[in-house]
Write a structure and sequence with these properties.
heterodimer; A: Sodium/glucose cotransporter; 70% helix; 0% strand; B: 73 residues; mainly alpha
C-alpha cells in the first residue's frame, strides 16, 4: 500500500550536503549488512533454511521483519508527502490498515497457513484449488515482485540524486550488488535480520524530526494553530469527522471508502495474501509465534505515524515555504515528496543526518531484499519445481534459490533502467499490484473459510476479479467520468478510485467463486485437512496464562486502535 | 543450519551497530558543541542526547545478547 512516489531529478541541485561523519555512518551500514550476510551463509544450507529461515524465528523477530518488509523508504517518504497534501487522513493507511486485518491474519488465517506447511501463498492456492490457480498467482507474483524491486531501486536512485546529488547509476549498482550479495549468501535469514535492523534504524534515524518539530511548533495545539493559519482550514487534523461527504475533506473520499475499501478489502488483501510479508510470519518457530507476529506488527504499525504522518504535518506547519506537486518542482521549488528529507535537514546536524539518510537507504534496500527473497521462494517452489524440475535434491533447490536471487537482481536492474525510460510505469505499477490484491484476498479467504469452494470456482473467481479490476482502471483512464460511477459519487477524487475499485473487484471475485463453486465438484474432505478452517486442528490455549494468548494481544490492538480514532476524530 | 555453534541473535548485531553510531554521533556533537549550526533548535544539542541514548540502547543489546557460553552441539 505505497503511494506513488516519483521524485523528478532536479537538475544540478541537491537538498543535503553530507559531512564526513554522515558518509562514515552510511559506509558502516553497508559493511554491516554484507558482514551479516557472510556470517549467515553457514546457516543457510538447506532449502528450509534458505527459503524459510529454518522456521525458527521468534515472534518478535518475525513480527518486526513482517512490518519492516512493508515499511520501506518509498512508503515513509510517500506517506509523509501525502500527509503534507491531505493532512492526518493519511494516518488511515497506518491505523485502519493495521486493524482489523492484522488481527484477523494472526487469529484466523495463520493457523491454516502454518498447519498447511506450505512454502508460499501460491503454494497454499495449489493445495486448495489446484495448479491453475497456483500458476496464475505464482507467475503474476513473480513478475510483480521483480518490477517492484526494480522500481524500488529506481526510486532510491532518484531520491539519492535529488537529496544528495549522487549519480543514478552509482546508486543503482552499489545498492543492488549489496542486496544481491547478502540475500544470495544468507537467504531469508539475511533478509529478516536486515529488516529488523532497518526497523531500528528507521526509528532512531527519523525520531529527531517529530521530537524537535513538536518543540518548534509548540505542541499539538501549536501545530494545529499553525496548520490552520497556513491552509485556512481545519480539515487537515481530523480523522473521521470530515469524511461524511467526498467534498468535505482534502482527499476527496467518503468514510465508506476508508472503512470498507481501505480497512476492509485493501488492508485484508495486502496483509493476508502478499507473500512478501506472509513469508516472514511463516518463518516463525511455532504456531503461537506465527500468530503473534502479525499482532506484534499491528502495534508498531500503529505507532509509525509518529515518524511518518507527524513529520508531514510538521512540514506543513513549520517549513517557511510551500511544497508543490511533483510536476511543478524545480527552480527553487520543492515537491511534496521531499518533505521528509527537508525535515531531516532542518533539525539534524552531522551524524544525526547521516543516521536519517542511512535509515532511508536501509528502507529502500530492505524493500529490494524482501522482494528478492520472496521471488526466489516463489520461483523455486511454485514455478521451477512443479514445471521445470519435479525431482531434484534439496541441495539443488538451494543452488537454484541462490542463482535465482542473482537473476532476480539482474532483472530488477533491467526493470530499474526500463523505468528511467518510461517513468509513468511507476503509476501503472501501483495499479498493477492493486489488480491482484483484492481478488487474491477474496480467493484465499473464501478458500480458507468455506469448504464448498471448488478448484474451478477459485480459479474463475480470481480471474474474474482481476479482469474486472483491470477493466475499471482502464475505463477511468480513458474517461475520467467513470470514476463517479465506480465511487458512486460525482465528488469523488482520484484517491477514491483505488478504494472503490478494490471493493467492486473483491465482490465480483466472491460472487463468481460462489456461483461457479455451486455448479462444480468440490475436493473431498480428506484433501482439505489443514487447508480449510473447519478441517484444521487449532491448538487450544486455555492452559496458557492470558498474557501468552494471541487473542489477548489482538484485543489490545483493538483497544489501541479505538483510542487513536477517538483522540484524532 | 550449522549445528556446531548457535546463531548470534539479530539483537546482538543491532546493539553493535547502534553503539558504533552512538559513539560517532556523540563525538560529532561534542566537537560541534560550541560551533554555530544551521540546524533549527541546535541549541538543544540533539546529537549529544541522541548519541548518549544510542550508546545506552546499543550497549544494553550488545551486553545482554553477547555470545557467552555458546557450546558446540
Amino acid at each position: 500500500m505505497t503511494p506513488t512516489l516519483f521524485a523528478a531529478a532536479a537538475p544540478g541541485s541537491r537538498l543535503i550536503s553530507l559531512a564526513p561523519a554522515d558518509l562514515l555512518i552510511i559506509v558502516i551500514y553497508f559493511v554491516m549488512v554484507l558482514g551479516i550476510g557472510a556470517y549467515l551463509k553457514r546457516f543457510a544450507n538447506t532449502s528450509n533454511d534458505f527459503f524459510m529461515a529454518g522456521r525458527e524465528m521468534s515472534a518478535w523477530v518475525a513480527g518486526l521483519s513482517f512490518l519492516s518488509a512493508n515499511l520501506g523508504a518509498l512508503e515513509l517518504m510517500g506517506w509523509a508527502a501525502s500527509t503534507y497534501q491531505y493532512g492526518i487522513l493519511a494516518a488511515h493507511f497506518y491505523w485502519i490498515a493495521a486493524f482489523p486485518s492484522l488481527a484477523f491474519l494472526g487469529l484466523v488465517m495463520m493457523p491454516i497457513y502454518y498447519a498447511s506447511k506450505t512454502h508460499s501463498v501460491p503454494g497454499y492456492l495449489h493445495l486448495r484449488y489446484g495448479e491453475a490457480t497456483r500458476a496464475l498467482s505464482g507467475i503474476s507474483f513473480a513478475v510483480m515482485t521483480i518490477l517492484m524491486s526494480g522500481i524500488n531501486m529506481y526510486a532510491m536512485a532518484i531520491v539519492m540524486k535529488v537529496v544528495l546529488g549522487w549519480n543514478i547509476h552509482f546508486s543503482i549498482w552499489v545498492s543492488s550488488l549489496t542486496v544481491a550479495a547478502y540475500v544470495a549468501l544468507g537467504g531469508l535469514y539475511s533478509a529478516i535480520f536486515n529488516e529488523v535492523l532497518q526497523f531500528f534504524l528507521i526509528w532512531v534515524g527519523v525520531l529527531t524530526v517529530p521530537i524537535l518539530g513538536m518543540i518548534e511548533a509548540g505542541g499539538w495545539t501549536g501545530l494545529v494553530a499553525r496548520i490552520h493559519q497556513r491552509v485556512q482550514s481545519d480539515q487537515y487534523v481530523h480523522l473521521w469527522s470530515t469524511l461524511g461527504t467526498f467534498s468535505g475533506n482534502p482527499m476527496g473520499v467518503h468514510w465508506t471508502g476508508i472503512a470498507l475499501g481501505l480497512g476492509g478489502v485493501i488492508a485484508f488483501g495486502y496483509w493476508t495474501t502478499d507473500f512478501l510479508v506472509i513469508q516472514r510470519a511463516m518463518a516463525a518457530k511455532d504456531l503461537r509465534a506465527a500468530r503473534l507476529a502479525p499482532i506484534i506488527a499491528a502495534y508498531f504499525k500503529m505507532m509509525v505515524p509518529l515518524i511518518v504522518i507527524l513529520p508531514g504535518l510538521l512540514g506543513l506547519a513549520v517549513l517557511p515555504f510551500r511544497l508543490v506537486p511533483e510536476g511543478e518542482a524545480g527552480h527553487g521549488l520543492h515537491s511534496f515528496n521531499e518533505v521528509l528529507p527537508l525535515m531531516l535537514a532542518r533539525y539534524c546536524g552531522p551524524g544525526l543526518l547521516g543516521l536519517g539518510i542511512t535509515a532511508l537507504i536501509a528502507g529502500f534496500m530492505s524493500g529490494m531484499a524482501g522482494n528478492l527473497s520472496a521471488f526466489a521462494t516463489v520461483w523455486t517452489y511454485d514455478i521451477y519445481r512443479p514445471y521445470l524440475c519435479k525431482v531434484g535434491s534439496d541441495a539443488q533447490y538451494v543452488v537454484v534459490g541462490r542463482w535465482c536471487t542473482i537473476l532476480g537482481v539482474i532483472l530488477s536492474i533491467g526493470a530499474a533502467y526500463f523505468v528511467t525510460q518510461f517513468k509513468s510505469i511507476m503509476d501503472y505499477m501501483q495499479a498493477l499490484v492493486s489488480f491482484f490484491i483484492a481478488p487474491l484476498c477474496a480467493t484465499v479467504i473464501i478458500g480458507m473459510l468455506w469448504k464448498r469452494a471448488t478448484p474451478k470456482g477459485g480459479f474463475w473467481g480470481l480471474l474474474a476479479g482481476t479482469v474486472a479490476s483491470v477493466a475499471m482502471f482502464t475505463l477511468v483512464k480513458f474517461n475520467h467520468s467513470y470514476l463517479a460511477i465506480i465511487a458512486l459519487s460525482p465528488d469523488a477524487k482520484d484517491m477514491a478510485e483505488n478504494l472503490y475499485r478494490s471493493i467492486w473487484s473483491w465482490l465480483i471475485c466472491i460472487i463468481v467463486t460462489v456461483v461457479v463453486s455451486l455448479y462444480t465438484a468440490p475436493k473431498p474432505a480428506a484433501e482439505l485437512q489443514d487447508i480449510v478452517y473447519c478441517y484444521t486442528q487449532i491448538p487450544v490455549e486455555d492452559k496458557l496464562p492470558i498474557y501468552k494468548r494471541p487473542i489477548f494481544w489482538a484485543t489490545g490492538v483493538a483497544v489501541f486502535f479505538a483510542i487513536l480514532q477517538y483522540i484524532f476524530w | 543450519m550449522s549445528k556446531e555453534t548457535p546463531m548470534l541473535p539479530v539483537w546482538f548485531f543491532i546493539g553493535v551497530l547502534l553503539s558504533i553510531y552512538g559513539v560517532i554521533i556523540l563525538v560529532m556533537a561534542v566537537l560541534d558543541f560550541n560551533q554555530t549550526s544551521q540546524a533549527v533548535l541546535a541549541e538543544y544539542h540533539p546529537g549529544l542526547f541522541g548519541g548518549i541514548l544510542l550508546i545506552l540502547l546499543g550497549g544494553f543489546y550488545t551486553v545482554w545478547f553477547w555470545p557467552r557460553g555458546r557450546k558446540k552441539d
